[in-house]
């Protein structure tokens, strides 16, 4: 029997000087980056939370605590690889991912295809199964004031009951 699980994820990080801006595993030229214990990739963090949530496996804080020095500065791509292994151990695979990045600046359109390719490779799906969109808030809220960036994701996992 075909089993389908759905999960949602959300993440937000503040923009600060002196850090690179990493989104979807891509370093984006910008005068600020996201503050966090790891590389603070809000897009991948939202996707990981959605993947973990679909199988009721907790959240990324439970798996990768921000007080653990082994995760200091770690690439979120590496963390995503770990989450994908957990999903496979439970007998599931990724069906598709739909995500959105909310940021007033920088403009992200030139980098979205690279983000999709990076994540599709790790998720072991075709690029057509990974959607990344970007939007602004028309200068409203913390994203609009350029204080931070947020991301939301929804995922579908597919499994088979033996």
Automatic annotation (TrEMBL):
Catalytic activity: 4-CDP-2-C-methyl-D-erythritol 2-phosphate = 2-C-methyl-D-erythritol 2,4-cyclic diphosphate + CMP
Cofactor: a divalent metal cation
Signal peptide location: none
Cross-referenced InterPro entries: MECDP_synthase, MECDP_synthase_CS, MECDP_synthase_sf
E.C. number: 4.6.1.12
NCBIfam families cross-referenced by the UniProt entry: ispF
Family assignment from sequence similarity: Belongs to the IspF family.
Record-given protein name: 2-C-methyl-D-erythritol 2,4-cyclodiphosphate synthase
